[in-house]
Write a structure and sequence with these properties.
By secondary structure, this protein is mainly α. It has 7 helices and no strands. The chain has one domain (4-171). It is 77% helix and 0% strand.
């Protein structure tokens, strides 16, 4: 009975994170997207990384849910289908591959989150460059988008780590 609560809370939290990604970005748009910098919030990614690493039994369909929420994210926020629909399940796959090899604690989960954040942002950059949506160079992307995005999401991770960990462990 206890484990079924996680199967209910995970999708609800995923869609709350999806909603908050857009809402918080909209509210703080003046600070997050002040030219030439762009800081992209990734609360959905944070929720997914926590789900992969804190689900002891690996019974959640995180890959399927991430593809679905990626499709919704693409459809509603980006308007370009496929970017997050492929990128988020890719992150889930990478996390599942490295999960058996790590000792889970605050610092390792932080590093994994930063690595996955970098992978997702680089994947998005490559996709948008190939689609001719953006034309900025790699150095501009690293300095003006990737760096600020990592900084903002690092702060959010530090603030939300213990409450989210406690939530996952209490319903797991």
């Amino acid at each position: 009975m206890r484990y079924s609560r996680l199967k209910i809370i995970f999708p609800i939290g995923l869609f709350v994170a999806l909603f908050l990604d857009g809402s918080v970005s909209n509210v703080f748009a003046g600070k997050l997207f002040s030219y030439p910098y762009a800081s992209v919030l990734h609360l959905v990614l944070l929720w997914i990384v926590f789900a992969v690493f804190l689900d002891d039994r690996d019974n959640l369909s995180v890959g399927i849910w991430s593809a679905f929420v990626g499709l919704v994210f693409d459809w509603y926020y980006t308007g370009i289908l496929g970017v997050y629909m492929i990128g988020l399940p890719l992150v889930v796959y990478i996390c599942r591959q490295i999960k058996p090899w790590i000792d889970l604690n605050f610092l390792t989960l932080l590093m994994i989150y930063i690595i996955n954040l970098t992978i997702l942002e680089a994947f998005t950059y490559i996709w948008y460059t190939m689609s001719h949506v953006i034309s900025s160079g790699l150095a501009d992307f690293a300095v003006y988008t990737l760096g600020p995005t990592i900084a903002v999401n690092l702060a959010i991770f530090v603030i939300l780590y213990y409450p989210m960990r406690r939530l996952y462990l209490s319903v797991n």
